[in-house]
Design a protein that fits this description.
The complex is a heterodimer. Chain A is mostly beta strands. Chain A contains no helices and 11 strands. Helices cover 0% and strands 44% of the residues of chain A. The chains are: A mainly beta, B mainly beta. Chains A and B meet through strand 5, strand 6 and strand 10 of A and strand 4, strand 5 and strand 10 of B.
Chain lengths: 110, 113
Amino acid sequence: AQRVTQPEKLLSVFKGAPVELKCNYSYSGSPELFWYVQYSRQRLQLLLRHISRESIKGFTADLNKGETSFHLKKPFAQEEDSAMYYCALKGGTSYGKLTFGQGTILTVHP
Amino acid sequence: DTGVSQDPRHKITKRGQNVTFRCDPISEHNRLYWYRQTLGQGPEFLTYFQNEAQLEKSRLLSDRFSAERPKGSFSTLEIQRTEQGDSAMYLCASSLQGAQPQHFGDGTRLSIL
């Protein structure tokens, strides 16, 4: 079975501070990991995926297979980063269904 | 292209009634997914279509739920004899085949009175 755990439901930081949203997963094969973001009154949208190894809006995430983690990081948080963030896993044997974590609400204070 | 479109945005109904939701995926996307999201939880997978074929169904999809994608374009999700526990946000997503990301719609929020 595949499972995604986001241990923090709420995370608050001040503008300019570093931020790290934690994600741990459980999967026996080689997963594909994603971060999705939902801004206020907007639809869920893809932020980044581990196979792209890119930085989007200053965010990066590295897949650590040893620790089964895919933490999302940004060195200097901005107020516009305030949103709900979901970590999601796609197993290699499925047709692409995503297994989501419970989500973390990030609030960046001015 | 406006992205994945879902209709209606909100549905309020009495327990025991049937409801049907519609999803129009991004054109050319041959994969279509339905998810359900309850308060405080992430989306949970319900079912998946590749073109018109329903290829995977979650155990969450009881026999009161049925989904179709008759011509490989739009999809409908029907819930018969609704129950209180069906209250949730129902999300639709679509993608191209291969290692392509899923694009989500705004969802249909179902409230059972």
